[in-house]
Design a protein that fits this description.
Strand content: 15-25%
Distance between the termini: 15 Å
Strand order of the largest sheet: 2-5-1-6-7
CATH topology: Rossmann fold
CATH architecture: 3-Layer(aba) Sandwich
Structural class: alpha/beta
Radius of gyration: 16 Å
Number of domains: 1
Bound molecules: 2'-deoxyadenosine-5'-diphosphate
Order of helices and strands: EHEHEEHEEHHHEH
Number of strands: 7
Length: about 170
């Protein structure tokens, strides 16, 4: 069944600006943000906490069940660092945010990440793990890589999404 509004996935290494960008997209377009990290915590969609990695162990089945109905309606901006767990059919556009090492490091340090997590994320970003995973998991033509180093970058990214959404609506007669 065709959606009335498209769903957008905003993914990328932690600290690349997913949550901030998704909030701005939601404000500008009226789409509804789903912050998956928050959802996992608030609805306990995990199997416990791994202190060593400072992360929750995701219960993927529970998470997908929880999200299915929300996504079915369309009009969602889903914000998560992992992109390969979702069904391909859920998304019409996949944005992969990218950041250079210095700003990424500064943002994570400010957030109080431990050295191990910081190193891992920097490495993940340099190796473009999320970008490659997104390209393997979704049709390449819907995967868009966006630089997210500055506020200007963020504003132009949001602008681009707004234009994309307008075009989608026209194309789908909405
Ligand atoms: P994520 O959701 O990817 O972990 P975030 O949106 O929480 O990232 O952003 C982390 C911090 O970095 C937050 O204080 C906002 C800042 N930030 C993110 N993207 C930025 C950008 N393009 N320019 C300047 N600051 C940015």
């Amino acid at each position: 069944m065709e959606r009335n509004l498209p769903n957008i996935l905003v993914t990328g290494t932690p600290g690349t600006g997913k949550t901030t960008t998704s909030e701005m997209i939601a404000n500008v377009t009226g789409l509804e943000q789903i912050n998956v990290g928050d959802l996992v915590k608030s609805k306990q969609l995990h199997e416990g906490y791994l202190a060593e990695f400072d992360t929750h162990i995701l219960d993927e089945d529970k998470l997908l069940d929880e999200m299915e109905d929300m996504v079915k309606e369309g009009g969602k901006v889903v914000d998560f660092h992992t992109c390969e767990i979702f069904p391909e059919r859920w998304f019409d556009l996949v944005l992969v945010l990218r950041a250079d090492t210095q700003p990424l490091y500064d943002r994570m340090e400010k957030r109080g990440y431990n050295q191990r997590k910081l190193q891992e994320n920097i490495e993940c970003e340099i190796m473009q793990v999320v970008l490659e995973t997104a390209r393997e998991s979704y049709a390449p033509e819907i995967v868009i890589e966006l630089q997210s180093n500055t506020i200007d970058d963020m504003e132009s990214n949001v602008d681009r999404v707004k234009q994309w959404l307008d075009a989608w609506k026209t194309q789908h007669g909405k």
